[in-house]
Amino acid sequence: MTAFPFALVEDPEELGTLRMWDRAIYADLIACREGRLSEAGFNAKHRYTTAILGLDMTGFTHSSIAHGDLHSMLRILDVHRVCLPIFREFEAHQVRAFADDLYGTFPDPRRALDCAFEIHRRVAAFNARLPGDRHPAQCCVGLGYGAVLRIGPDHAMGREMNRTSKLGEDIAEGGETLVTDDFHAAVRDRPGYRFEPRTHAAVGFPFYAAFLSG
Q1: Buried b / exposed e across 170-209, counting CB within 10 Å, b at 16+?
Q2: Alpha helix (H) ranges present in the chain?
Q3: Which helix (H) or strand (E) holds 137?
Q4: What is the pLDDT of residue 43?
Q5: What is the average pLDDT value for the chain, to the nearest integer?
Q6: Cα 106 to the chain's mean position, in Å?
Q7: Which stretch of 55-64, 135-144, 196-205 has the lowest confidence by average pLDDT?
Q8: Closest Cα partner for 179 from 138, 207, 205?
Q9: How many CA atoms lie within 13 A of 202 on its CB side?
Q10: At residue 98, does pLDDT exceed 60?
């Protein structure tokens, strides 16, 4: 093993205080680093297939600058109040909030797709009833489906999580739902929806915009 002229943290318990992964995950990663656990062994313990919904709120930075911190927190509160019941209704088995993002994982990609459009519908209905001095929130949604690692706060780390986050956080606009090609392959025949292929200079993988067809 290579010797370093500085300290490295090797204790999974101490690494777990970072709250990125729990102690058991750090222990397994260290075992992989040291050759005591194979990649196949790690995947057998931690990889699974899920659908991912990543939601980002538009205009959060502008709202904070223009209207102040409390106004921005109230926008987040509004979206949480609207969206949490929807995630439950559509049987998300993991939901997490971070800053102005929400992530949910679903065993069925069709439920994730239905959830995304119900979020857009209810957020729009909520905004329509707001007083005129309230800056309404809109949501940008990315959807992915595939094998990920059941580690980290979202229980979904890896390639498909990265692609979903890219679409939801960086590419989608307010009220828009973008899906990875793997997600599209799983739901492309779903009645009531249509999909259009999209390209973007910042995205190096195929993706689609999803629409209600009715």
Answers
A1: ebbebebbbbbbbbbebbeeeeebebeebeeeebeeebbb
A2: 12-15, 23-33, 39-46, 60-67, 69-89, 109-128, 159-165, 181-187
A3: none
A4: 96
A5: 92
A6: 11
A7: 55-64
A8: 207
A9: 8
A10: yes
Amino acid (one-letter) located at 124: A
Query: Which token pair is 45?
Result: 């313990």
Q: Contacts from 57-63 at CB under 8 Å and sequence distance 24+?
A: 57/100, 57/101, 57/137, 57/138, 57/139, 57/140, 58/137, 58/138, 58/139, 58/140, 58/173, 58/174, 59/135, 59/137, 59/138, 59/174, 60/99, 60/100, 63/135
Q: Rounded to 5 degrees, what are φ and ψ at 96?
A: -140, 145
Lowest mean pLDDT segment, chosen from 12-16, 96-100, 172-176:
96-100
Q: If you average pLDDT over residues 142-152, what whole number do you get?
A: 95
- Residue of 80, 90, 88, 85 whose CA lies nearest to 113: 90
- Give the whole-number percent of the chain exceeding pLDDT 90: 76
The pair of structure tokens assigned to 13 is 């318990």
78-95 residue pLDDT tens: 899 999 999 999 999 989
| CA–CA separation, 64 and 166 (whole Å) | 23
State the pTM of this model: 0.92
Residues making up the chain, counted from first to last? 214
Residues 113, 190: Cα–Cα separation, whole Å:
9
